Amino acid sequence: MKLRFNLTLMILVLASFEGCTKPKSSDDGDASTPLNQSQNDEFSRPVPLTMDSDTKRWWISKANRTMRLSKSLQSMKDTAELESLPAEEIIDRMQNTKDFYDMIADFTSYWLGNKGLDIWANYGGNTVHISRNFVRNTAVINSVKKFYDGEDYFGSLFSTNGFPIDAGYSPAYLKNGTQPQIPHPEIRQKIRDGFWKNKQKLTDFLNANDASGFCNALFDNETEFSIADLFFGIGGAGNFNSDVFSKKILAFQMYCIDPTSASSSEVLQKLNDFETTSDQLIAGANAMQPPNNDYMAAFRKDHVVDLNFLKNSSYDQLAADYAQFDDDFFSKIPNSSTNRNRKRAAWVLKRFFCDDLTPINVEAPSEHGDGVHGSQASCYSCHYKLDPMAGYFRHLGNGGRSYEKFSKIIYDDFAISDRSEYEKPWRSSSSERSWNIGYIRDLKRTESNTYGETFGDLLQLLKTAPEVKQCFVKRVAQYMLGESQTMDSGYLNAIADRFVASSKVNATQAFKNVFKEIALSNTFVEKDPISSQCYDFAASSAQGSRAPCRIASILERNCTSCHSSNGPSGGLDLTKWSKIGADSVTGSSIFGFPHVEGETQLSKSESLKRINDRLQTPDSNLRMPLMKTMPSAEREELFLWLQKNL
Question: Which residue of 232, 246, 466, 585 shows the fewest CB atoms closer than 10 Å?
């Protein structure tokens, strides 16, 4: 029975999760002296008004391909009319189309790390419509449709409640032989009746406290209809409300693993409830049955926002939790008995916080932590952030199912743990909180951290954390400009600040403005940008001899209050990047930070080595910036730049 039960569990963990594709890149090296460019009113880096006609025509074509997801300009109004308009108005027109929301769907898929899931598919002939596989990404579709209706994109994407998805394409399925000539509603009814005719037998087993007999009858594929048959027969794995279905039978799974987890009368009540649930699911599937069994009709739409079958009153009350972390996510990033949600935590930190968990030995294991990851600095440098983030997922076991109400938890590798023992590492001894769960910015200055307990707390964090807004802007820039293009972080942070401020007035327009600003950037208008050079800067940035643009704003925010030309601490001036010597062989200039010891300028390599050592020392009395919390993503970026130039 255990083997058959495990197979049933495996059936319910479905879907694929493609990695994102990277845009064109080139080598990343030291930035040359940045261009000294002027600023402008609303947007810090608009397209210059002095564009010649050829450049503007080229820019319009590029903007259209990006903002309207490669749709042809010929489908818009006269191209000549566009050329006569100001650049901002051109972007406004492009954003006032359904094509723009297709682009937002594509971007959201990219942001969720799923760029390989194409929106479009060819179902025969020359007609291209919405891909059925893309529609399975309920978080993307839901957020874009609500954004189209004027709701907050972030609030929709990180909602605590999703919705069931289409059943129309599920194959005809009937135990002991497929009969495609029978309409799907009749097949569903046959499976429903075939399964529930054994209800009395199931009830008899429960009344006799015979857990083994009950579980065999429920899960055994050798019976006429098992619960797996009902699952596939209602709508098909992954195509229809599998999240709702699998969570409903979790109580039966736990009872079969541990008969002491519930009384037979409690299981009987859940069985009665489950009969009602399955009937609701069947009614919802039948209500979406397309005319003439044309299952592709639902996808023959020109735009994502035209999809109209994702909600149905027959099963709306059964909406699935955590749609943005759906079957695709949980099957691709499992919770095993060894990683204990750390892979899921790493994914969240990377996608939403732009934190790649670059190992920097900042926090001292001797001061915090225990066990192997608390005693090895190379491990702890990541785990002090990773483990607290993993705690948000602690209730979720195999397939993303919540085991909060059970004494045990089942992992995706089918190992089983006592839940109280499993959760011990996250319990806090502090009087300030019960759990060491949250987003950790600084272990010593805990007031800068955001703590929580539940998965819902994580979603709230993703809606509100400033790091997520900054990362979102960075992802937009990467999506539109290419991941290898160097951007001044101060410029991107300025866009993020405006986004946060304007969201309080009009969240929809604020979201559009982020894409608008990038489209109106000098980087975007540059025909052949150099990947290591910045073309856009924050309005407050001083140019000229400023540090390389990859790190200049990071230094300005964290370091230059002490390390400037006005009495540089330790003889180090981080506000300048200037000639400090010449190569003894070639005679070429060597650029670096002014870093004087006594009256002698340190070599570039020695200067950068000292900065690197002070950046990552675990000694809080020596670590820079001194007595200040530095965002981990910025510390990592500076660290990576130093490693490249040492």
Answer: 585
